[in-house]
Specification:
about 20% strand; single chain; about 35% helix; extended; alpha+beta; 3 helices
Length: about 100
């Protein structure tokens, strides 16, 4: 049954308008929720600009959000297998190793 599901996903044809295909850049996401929805505001912060401009708001039900999280984790794993680990830049002057930050 899983194989049939994978085949259906691989055969999905996406129709994408040219303006949507260009994408929207985001370097910040604010996530909130209520009992029935997960809301993600994708925003863009620019140097010298006060505040962040929300570029897209995505609203999905919790089940779809959980599936999206699993798909994103799987894609990041595959990305790192192909290109190497994704490492967050260390702020200038930071001497605390990131792997211990936030650990009690």
């Amino acid at each position: 049954m899983a194989n049939q599901k994978e085949q259906q996903q691989n055969n999905l044809k996406l129709n994408i308008a040219p303006d949507v295909a260009q994408g929207t850049y985001s370097n910040l996401v604010v996530i909130s929720h209520n009992p029935t929805e997960i809301i993600m505001d994708f925003a863009q912060m620019l140097p010298g600009v006060d505040g962040a401009a929300v570029r897209q708001r995505i609203i999905m039900n919790p089940i779809h959000a959980k599936r999206t999280l699993a798909a994103l984790a799987d894609n990041i794993k595959k990305y790192e297998q192909q290109f190497g680990p994704i490492e967050e830049p260390r702020p200038a002057g930071d001497t605390v190793p990131y792997d211990i930050i936030g650990k009690a």
